[in-house]
Amino acid sequence: MKQRSIVTYTLAGIIGFGSSFAYIGDASASKLSDLQNEQNEIVNKRSNVNESIEKKNNQINKLESEKSGLELQVEKLERDITATNDKIGQKEKQIADTKAEIEKLKAEIEELKLKIEKRDELLKERARNIQQNGGSVNYIDVFLGSESFGDFIDRFSAVSTIVSADREIMEEQQRDKDKLEENKIKVEQKLADLNNMLKELEELKAGLDSQKAQKAEAVKQLEAEKQHAETEKLSLEEEERILSAQNAAIQEAIKAENARIEQERKEREAAEAAAAAAAAKQAEQAQQSQQAPQSRPSAGGSKGAPAAPKKQYSPPSNSGPSVGAPPVSSGMFTRPAAGSFSSGYGPRSGGFHYGLDIAAGGTVPIVAAADGIVIRSEFSSSYGEVIYITHRINGQTYTTVYAHMRKGSRTVGSGQAVKKGQVIGSMGNTGQSFGQHLHFEIHVGGWNGAKSNAVNPRQYIN
Ligand SMILES: [Zn+2]
């Protein structure tokens, strides 16, 4: 037997199921006690497995409550992000408003600057005129220069008007300057406010980014924990399935063995009664022919009695007429179907082929490769109509897989015990299959998605 380490699959080696489960054949007196020992072993193992199932259930519950906690955290983060986004929106609007205000102020300042420049020009012109007139308004000069008093009044009025206008212009200029200064301070304050708002906004954005990163990490962790819990759950379910199937099977085997023993007892009693009757008749005949010269030696007891016919126990046959089924071999596994080996185990285009393909036309029966218990009988998108059987041979667990079976042809269900060579269905083309064939896998240990326990079936079929 090929030795292989089985560490990848939790189910491997859990089930202690002696090869004497194959109870058909020689009927030894120790058979029943062997079966009972095995049942005790299964009961102990079930108790251990149930204990670890309980532990794993607790673990799953704990993980689920942690998951709920994380989901609440994620919801809170999402609310915070929404709130922060609202704040950012508000700040952006305020910044836009302030910028518009600054633009308006800048325009006003420009306008004022232009006015002041114009008034500067005007004042300079007045200053030039006053300088040309001698630096001050001389009323005598104005009077003496007048052609008439009327002319003087006109001249005087013009001078005072000019002076008054100068004063007004200067006052107005001063007010404009004050306004400009005021506006400048306002603009500077607005700019400072704007900078503060920008800073606040940047801080908010940084906080938001950090929260987003935190959320992403929480979601990632949540997803990993969830997947881990689901994987464990699947393993537990598989364990439970195999254990209950094997428990049912061993109980059936004990029942069958008890029935066989009872039948044997009845046959033995009948044979003993027949032997006793024959002995009595013989004794009677011997007494009657005592006078005869030719005396036969006495048979004495049941020594000369005809032996009780040893009845061969026949297996419960639910295989039906298996026309075309290959002959059942005496090796570890028998060939599961007749036909040609169309594709072997090993690398092939597009990946690795973990099984052996056997192809044939027409209605081709598929048989169990060895005694065992059906652990799955189902339809899957890849395997199509498929049956998984677990076997216990010489202290080692094996799993065989029969894929792409004909639709509606599966004759055995999960938990059912099957015999080597028993028909379990017929060859088909279901699932990911192109042309009628049987895809047959052997795993040393349990089956797993990675198919890490798969071996070349050709080396096991004999
Ligand atoms: Zn295949």
From TrEMBL:
Domain M23ase beta-sheet core stretches: 352-448
Segments of skewed composition (Low complexity): 272-331
Coiled-coil zones: 35-125
Any one Pfam family match given in the protein's UniProt record, by short name: CC_PcsB
Entry superkingdom: Bacteria
Peptidoglycan hydrolase PcsB coiled-coil domain ranges (all copies): 109-182
Biased amino acid composition, Basic and acidic residues: 260-271
Swiss-Prot/TrEMBL keywords: Coiled coil, Signal
Region (Disordered), start-end ranges: 260-331
PANTHER family per UniProt: MUREIN HYDROLASE ACTIVATOR ENVC (PTHR21666:SF270), PEPTIDASE-RELATED (PTHR21666)
Protein's name according to its UniProt entry: Peptidoglycan hydrolase CwlO-like protein
Organism: Siminovitchia thermophila
Taxonomic lineage of the native organism: Bacteria, Bacillati, Bacillota, Bacilli, Bacillales
